[in-house]
Design brief:
Strand content: 15-25%
Order of helices and strands: EHEEHHE
Number of strands: 4
CATH architecture: 2-Layer Sandwich
Length: about 110
């Protein structure tokens, strides 16, 4: 079983280059710190302004460890703020999904 963290953002028109540059910088910092970088993609339907950032983690504990470690990287807060300037207000959403369920995860009768 693993976990998928998705960061969903709808960008203001014309801000894609600024958003992507900040993500490249964030991914470089994450990689340098031994943390998981995020893939960036846009859904097949909708516009390029619908962005999804995604990373996979082996456990909830690993996600939490990396989340706390990210907060200790000094430049990360400023890069997050730069990205949020690109986002249409009220459209930011995050998801943490458990994936790889099997029959042993089903409730017992």
């Amino acid at each position: 079983m693993s976990y998928r963290h998705q960061i969903l953002r709808n960008l203001k028109f014309g801000t894609l280059p600024k958003f992507m540059e900040a993500q490249r910088e964030k991914n470089a910092l994450l990689t340098a710190a031994g943390l998981t970088p995020y893939s960036v993609w846009a859904p097949a339907f909708g516009g390029l302004h619908h962005m999804v950032l995604e990373a996979h983690f082996e456990s909830m504990a690993e996600f939490e460890r990396q989340h706390l470690a990210q907060k200790k990287i000094p430049e990360m807060a400023a890069l997050n703020a730069t990205q949020l300037e690109c986002v249409i207000e009220g459209t930011a959403e995050d998801r943490l999904q458990r994936i790889g369920l099997d029959a042993s995860d089903a409730p017992k009768a």
